[in-house]
Design goal:
By secondary structure, the chain is an alpha+beta fold. It has three domains: 4-24 and 433-513, no CATH class; 29-428, Glycosyltransferase (Alpha/alpha barrel), CATH 1.50.10; 539-668, Jelly Rolls. It is 27% helix and 21% strand. The chain has 17 helices and 27 strands. The strands form nine sheets. Strands 21, 22, 23, 24, 25, 26 and 27 form a seven-stranded antiparallel beta sheet that branches. A five-stranded antiparallel beta sheet has the order 2-16-17-18-19. The longest helix has 21 residues, at 211-231. The protein starts with a strand and ends with a strand.
């Protein structure tokens, strides 16, 4: 393998210098995840830096990802947005399509490719109901850029094409632009919807030609063109390339406001007493930066000037985060909607991790490959990334919520459903921005960390990421400003499959040819115990606390251990002996089980003893009699010789005065 480095980098051969000291992934996993460490150990890339708060949020975001993986049994895994069910999700799966791009953006960096692959199969197997706008086809392409799996990228090309064309219902053929009601853009109470109501409301209505939906459709068209070209369908590739070009021109010509020096909405509402068709909105919104997330905007100072508003405290720069509309808007931060006495979601000023993620991706693009980034600097990028990381903290506790006050950073909504909300990305920002791994379709590893130079208050003296999958290889990147932290020489280095292949003394770009290898095979064990629909098989039953929802929670395909959100079947504190049973409804070959228990050191503890039984020849018979106690806040595995059975029962003795919470009970074949 030869090495291609930019000017100023020292060229070395493979193995010419030993790699930096590796992180102890076992120790880090145990420290960050406790008894649940085995789930993470071989799956996630490991990261450390000179900023412990960024590190803590990085690992917390993998906990969020893990918590939101819902096991659908034979249909595989999906990512959810809320841990609590909400009325507007797609039932019974609890899926929503608006944040899918972020879910896949995070999941593409896992060494276990099943979660992203299953999710794509679900969404393009009928799961994408277009409830909201999305950039899902673009995120499938983005996943291909990391894993290099050509077949996986092209598997659903025909369905992607079909779904794209369904959006014609939201296409204004006269204007050549897409329009959408802000609510269905996952952004209720925007300038267009509030003004279309005369300032009285804004939850519904306010159809507008928005930078968001048009950027998404541009990105999806570009991705479809690239995938069609890869599949050898030149006609389809040319058609979508033309669509992308036409959308780019329309966005630049019609959604750019010279007056506001910003990309803005235009009203699409007709026969409205308050606004007129094609009328531009009157204030800047954070959504105006979305075109940069997808490289829609040309490298031109005329457009780059828009970024000064993001850094202006009188406009979009709140003290604690990015305002979704500038402070001068007439209805800025006016609260319209409540759930009882609690304020509900709005986009007329509050900070949203959703758009914060999008804007930081746009900033990273500017810094990585635009020659005219305007006022955007690496120092500003890192400051805003740290500001975003700070929103994950509620005091000393990590708990990302829906939206925040832009001046105080305190959560606004704060409902039960808001805890550990997965409507955004973070680790994708760390890997592609801070670390600077820029995935590509060709056989090149491109690394360009977006850190300011030493001496800047936002600089990092060192970082390392390892166990990163890329084109079938294992990648590590290390930065050590003066060589004192890792003691392997100063500068930036890149490793491929455990060998250092490139190094430079200063921050900058490194490009390394990497011959593509086959992506790891996906292992798909099927959980036979999961049931999403109450009253259908498999059916759970229990010795106590037999409420339908309580019992069902142990077989609903969800595993998390956050104390803020109870999850699983909770027994009564007495008597000591309890049981939980699953009726599979038919005979199934079962050879192993996974048991997840929650414990809090207070009212909930793991069983003191336990055993597993199966219904065989008309009687309950022991199949697993483990010694010792199961783990708390993690997964305990049990194995036995495969037995064919229609019912399985867990019997256990709980500590005196304590209850047991069985988070999830899974059953598998051989």
């Amino acid at each position: 393998m030869r090495i291609l480095l930019l000017a100023g980098a020292a060229m070395i051969g493979i193995g010419a210098a030993p790699p930096p000291s590796s992180m102890d992934m076992d120790a880090i996993a145990a420290r960050r995840f406790g008894n649940d460490a085995p789930w993470y150990r071989d799956r996630i890339p490991f990261f450390e830096s000179a900023d412990p708060r960024i590190d803590a949020v990085y690992y917390y975001r993998w906990q969020i990802f893990r918590a939101h993986q819902r096991d659908l049994g034979a249909e595989g895994y999906i990512s959810t947005e809320f841990l609590d069910d909400v009325d507007w999700q797609r039932h019974p799966y609890a899926s929503l399509n608006d944040a899918t791009g972020f879910h896949l953006g995070e999941g593409r960096w896992l060494n276990d490719r099943r979660f992203a692959d299953d999710y794509i199969n679900f969404m393009y197997g009928g799961g994408n109901d277009r409830h909201f706008t999305d950039h899902m086809a673009d995120s499938v392409w983005g996943r291909y850029l990391v894993d290099g799996d050509r077949a996986g990228a092209l598997r659903h090309l025909a369905v992607m094409n079909h779904i794209y064309r369904l959006w014609d219902e939201k296409f204004d053929f006269d204007k050549g632009l897409y329009f959408v009601e802000p609510l269905l853009d996952a952004t209720e109470y925007t300038v267009s919807s509030i003004d279309a109501s005369g300032g009285k409301d804004g939850f519904r209505g306010g159809d507008a030609f928005r930078p968001s939906v048009n950027s998404y459709m541009f990105a999806n068209a570009r991705a479809l063109s690239r995938m069609a070209e890869m599949a050898g369908d030149r006609a389809m590739a040319a058609d979508y390339a033309a669509r992308a070009d036409a959308l780019r021109k329309r966005v630049l010509d019609d959604l750019w406001s010279e007056k506001l020096s910003h990309f803005i909405d235009r009203h699409q509402s007709r026969k409205n007493p308050f606004v007129s068709y094609w009328q531009p909105i009157r204030n800047r919104e954070l959504v105006g930066y979305l075109p940069w997330m997808f490289d829609l905007v040309p490298d031109d100072a005329r457009y780059a000037q828009a970024w000064r508003h993001l850094l202006d405290p009188a406009s979009l720069a709140g003290a604690a985060g990015m305002r979704t509309v500038e402070a001068g808007y007439e209805y800025y931060m006016r609260q319209y909607r409540y759930l009882g006495a609690d304020p509900e979601c709005q986009w007329n000023g509050p900070v949203w991790p959703y758009q914060t993620t999008q804007v930081l991706h746009g900033m990273a693009n500017l810094l990585d490959h635009y020659r005219q980034p305007g006022p955007v600097t690496r120092s500003a990028y890192m400051r805003l990334l740290r500001q975003y990381a700070a929103l994950h903290y509620q005091g000393d506790r990590l708990d990302l919520e829906e939206d925040y006050h832009p001046e105080t950073g305190r959560p606004i909504v704060g409902l039960d459903r808001s805890h550990h909300y997965f409507h955004s990305g973070f680790n994708d920002l760390i890997l592609t921005g801070l670390v600077g791994i820029r995935p590509r379709a060709d056989d090149v590893l491109d690394v360009n960390p977006l850190l300011p130079q030493a001496g800047d208050p936002q600089a990092l003296d060192w970082f390392r990421v390892q166990h990163v999958p890329y084109h079938g290889h294992d990648i590590a990147v290390t930065w050590d400003a003066d060589g004192s932290h890792y003691r392997r020489g100063k500068g930036l280095s890149v490793e491929v499959d455990g060998r250092e292949v490139a190094r430079r003394d200063t921050l900058g770009r490194i490009e390394v040819p990497v011959t593509r290898a086959a992506a790891p095979a996906i292992h798909r064990p099927i959980n036979h115990a999961v049931q999403l629909v109450r009253g259908q098989f498999p059916i759970g039953s229990a010795s106590s606390n037999g409420d339908v929802e309580n019992v069902h929670d142990a077989i609903d395909g969800r595993v998390w251990f956050f104390p803020e959100l109870p999850n699983g079947w909770s027994s009564a504190p007495s008597p000591a002996r309890q049981w939980y049973a699953i009726d599979l409804g038919r005979p199934v070959d079962i050879a192993r089980a996974e048991l997840a228990f929650f414990a809090d050191g207070k009212g909930f503890a793991v069983p003191e003893t336990y055993r597993l039984q199966a219904w065989i020849d008309g009687d309950w018979r022991d199949v697993a009699t483990p010694k010792g106690r199961p783990v708390a806040n993690g997964v305990t595995g049990l194995r036995w010789s495969a037995r064919r059975t229609s019912k399985v029962r867990l019997l256990f003795a709980q500590p005196s005065g304590k209850a047991v919470r069985l988070v999830e009970f899974k059953l598998f074949g051989a």
